[in-house]
Amino acid sequence: MPTPILATKLYVPAPRPKAVLRPRLIERLNEGLFAGRKLTLISAAAGFGKTTLVSEWVAGCGRPVAWLSLDAGDNDAARFLTYFIAALQTIVAEIGAGGLGALQSPQPPTTESILTALLNEITTLPGKFILVLDDYHVIDAKPVDDALIFLLQHLPPQMHLVLATREDPSLPLARLRARGQLTELRAADLRFTPAEAAEFLNRLMGLNLSAEGIAALEARTEGWIAGLQLAAISMQGHADTTDFIKSFTGSHHFVLDYLIEEVLQQQHEGVQAFLLRTSILDRMCGPLCEALLRAPAGSGQDTLAALERANLFIVPLDNERRWYRYHHLFGELLRKRLGQGLAPAEIAGLHLEASAWLESNGLAFEAFHHATAAGDVERAERLIEREEIGLHLRSVAVPVLGWLASLPKATKDARPSLWVRSATLALMAGQTAEVEARLQAAEAAFAAQGVWPGAELDAQIRDLFGRMACARATLAVTRYDPQTMIAQARRAQEYLRPENLISRFTASWALAVAQLQLGDRAAAAQACLDSTAISQQSGHVFSIILATANLARVQALENQLHLAAESYQRVLQLAGDHPQPNAGDTQLSLAHILYEWNDLEAAERHGEQSLGLLRQFDRTIDRFIRAQVFLARVKLAQGDSAGADALLTQAEQGARQPGSARWASEGAAVRVLYLLQQNRLPAAAQLALAHPLPVSQARVVLAQGDPAAALAILEPLRQQMEAKGWQDERLKVLLLQAVALRAHGDKDEAVQTLGEALVLAEPGGFVRLFIDEGAPMARLLSEAAAHGMMPGYVGRLLAAFAAEGQPAQADSQASLPPRVGSASARPLLEPLSPRELQVLRLMAQGLSNREICMRLFLALDTVKGHNRRIFAKLAVQRRTEAIARARELDLL
């Protein structure tokens, strides 16, 4: 789910209708822009008109402009990059869409990988543009500075970067300056000249000052625009401006403090109270201000509009003039004065009023910030428990983690739930090394209060113990530890409240992952059903994505390729235009299915997309290896041995890294195929023996002309797969066993074994699995065709061989017949739907309605409904009649 973007941070400030024109500075900015320099730096203290100057310049420079007004929250690198891309999207809507989505995941990719992809996209843009980062001085995070350094090092010529800041950033300015890549404007450049000061004070502010008075004021303020503006506001209403100017002395800070006093004192009491009390707000609207001041409805918006008209340092944040903020420096000074006038408890009360209003208006995250400012730990904790706060988003999780880290240990020990939340958020943010220590701290805090897991506990405490177990189960997923996953997930299910759907989903999901890793597919299927049901009940999109992906994996393992493809497509649809890192796995799984359907072009495309996503978004090397190995398999099928070799070499290098050995065998199996294709039998034999690869070993001895040895390997392996119920592996073994039997001279048994494989393969539409066995399989299929075995499916397979340039015998068909189960091939008034065909085929295999439910992950009533429609379309009344009629129509 994408992070909510505050659009007002992306507005380009409109040039002020009454502003001092500064052609000398505009000329310097244009010079740097059109000279092709990378960076324009405008660096000066507050109040020197940096933002006003830049907004005036970009309005007339003739280039598209993206604008980002930074705030303290942008010190989180993920949030900074999110807004950085969002700003660019105001120019080109689709740019950076993949990176923007990945940043919302619990474990986003590296900054460099995101920027690399983004810069590559920028290089394809036809026109040049400007990106302005305003108020860069609020950034004090090295990761953000490093991101900007990387950006500047590789900046495409289409992009010109502008920084407006109160202090020099931690960037290689000297190097940029030496290379002629930097345009600089500093305080000495930005100060009003006497002529500009005169225009500002007399024409814009409406004062009738003498030349001497202007010169004196300009000298005393040193051309400081904010000082001049404050002085002008203070002088409005003074009859004797000469005496005022004479008394106007001191440093910038002293003068500003003095003028704030003058400004405030010239406002009536109600406005002063409004300014001071609303200064606690980062942004404000009329109703929020009314809540703080307990004022009548409508008065807040009227006051904000009046403040804007009076130039009292208030900045509109949207075109409708609904939301505003104070000028940063003005707001800081108002808060300082508020602290001098109100007791801390009274200020905390204002924060609580703001928090209550924001919560009631659906702004839970901002409400949380004010609760923490008030020091109300209980309220802050309650707010972060609300689902709408969006803790699954990194931009929310990181600030909440920061608050939790700032709390004293004694506070968290008194409220162990804070330790639990800290642990779960660390897990979501990818800080896995800290999770167990925080869970143990929670347990110690509970123990100090006399609370133990085995004791009599209330529902809330039991739920906390369940959430701790859930966190440990998820932590075990990252460590490929299925036994711990199962133990902790079951413990979580025992303790969690029934209504805690998110945690209950996580426990069921972890169980499914664990059972898949252990190879217990029946248990995995049940866990998938449970987690899918819970995710649907919760409506939580990320949970639905994870559940559907697990379901698709089980379907693929059961050879239900059409169902699996539908499920994987749903995962991508739910992810939308902002793919999460696990979208790489989804694309790779789809690619495998397309490969089996012999759509090599689409399989390669999805495989490349998977590899790109994993490069950009995922730091897990084993997933990367899987994608490379798959693409190598595609290259072999396409006859590109050199391409396959290169990809396998890359995968083998990656497999040498720690934690990647579990995928080394997968790569070795494809390497054996490559070596056999190159007729390098000794090397293939050595590699197959070096890994637990019985199928590869059987291939090697078969290639060496020893089918008996191949059969000796395959028969026990087939029995083992049948005992486990692993349909995908059973199918692979059956096909190779059929080839070996024929090579051994057992043609009838070979055809019979092939028949078993065809029954398993046909519902899923497998094609490539047969083609990859080469000419021996083509001949075997011709013999099956001669026996009249499954003519529709066998004909399709023989046609696929012919298309590959591997014609078999005379039985080969010249054209691809209609897909088995397609409506065009069925003489029915109303054809069966794909789902009805799946139910019919399982019915023909002797499965009960309940077993069909488990196989297709459908409710019992749904299966019964399919049965009724099947009977009606086939004009029969019972199962046996339906199966017989289906055989007559070649539906099976």
What key attributes describe this structure?
892 residues, mainly alpha, 47 helices, 7 strands
Share in helix: 55-70%
Please indicate the percent range of residues in DSSP E strands (runs of 2 or more). Answer: under 5%
The low-pLDDT segments are 810-826
Strand order of the largest sheet: 2-3-4-1-5
What is the approximate shape? elongated
Return the structural class: mainly alpha
Largest sheet: 5 strands, parallel
Characterization of this structure:
With 892 residues, the chain is mainly α. It is 65% helix and 4% strand. It is built from 47 helices and seven strands. Helix 6 links the parallel strand 3 and strand 4 (159-165). The relative contact order is 0.04.
Summarize the structure.
It contains 47 helices and 7 strands. With 892 residues, it is mainly α.
Question: What's the structural blueprint in terms of helices and strands?
Answer:
Elements: H1 23-34, E1 39-43, H2 50-60, E2 65-69, H3 77-88, H4 97-102, H5 111-122, E3 129-134, H6 142-153, E4 159-165, H7 173-178, E5 182-186, H8 187-190, H9 194-204, H10 211-221, H11 225-235, H12 241-247, H13 252-266, H14 269-278, H15 286-293, H16 299-309, E6 314-316, E7 324-326, H17 328-341, H18 344-360, H19 364-373, H20 377-384, H21 394-406, H22 409-414, H23 416-428, H24 435-448, H25 459-478, H26 482-495, H27 501-518, H28 521-538, H29 541-557, H30 561-575, H31 583-596, H32 600-617, H33 621-637, H34 641-655, H35 664-677, H36 681-690, H37 694-703, H38 707-724, H39 727-743, H40 747-761, H41 768-771, H42 775-786, H43 791-803, H44 834-844, H45 849-856, H46 860-874, H47 879-888
Parallel strand pairs: 1-4, 1-5, 2-3, 3-4
Antiparallel strand pairs: 6-7
